[in-house]
């Protein structure tokens, strides 16, 4: 599979500007064709998916860049990568706990208000 930047942009949901920026800062390194156009592949899709997940769960760009640099350096950096991911995992678990607490409160209020509506209907 080979995708040009516009096709890759559509598949990832990222703008071409963002893709070029990611390449500029070293987060993405697509192959180039004979005309020097970017050629993205399945590995690039998987990589962007991971980067988007890290970003959407609050990993700072600085940490994402550090992780990316370690990946490019090779397998000897796997222990450092694990450390970065475990640190982020702790933060995500904290976020999940907080969101679950919020969801419990929202669910409680929905149940309460539905009960109020039922009471008002019975009284009418």
Short key terms for the protein model shown above:
Multidrug-efflux Transporter Regulator, Chain: A, Domain 2, 124 residues, mainly alpha, 2 strands, two-stranded antiparallel sheet, 5 helices, single chain, elongated, 2 domains, 73% helix
> Main sheet?
2 strands, antiparallel
Biggest sheet strand order reads 1-2
Uncertain stretches: none
Supply the helix-strand structural class. Answer: mainly alpha
**How many runs of DSSP E, i.e. beta strands?**
2
Strand content: under 5%
Helix count from the secondary structure assignment? 5
Structure description:
- The chain has 124 residues and is mostly helical.
- It has two domains: 1-56, Multidrug-efflux Transporter Regulator, Chain: A, Domain 2 (Orthogonal Bundle); 61-124, no CATH class.
- The protein is built from five helices and two strands; from the N terminus they run H-H-E-E-H-H-H.
- A two-stranded antiparallel ribbon has the order 1-2.
- Strand 1 and strand 2 (38-39) form a beta hairpin.
- The N and C termini lie far apart (65 Å).
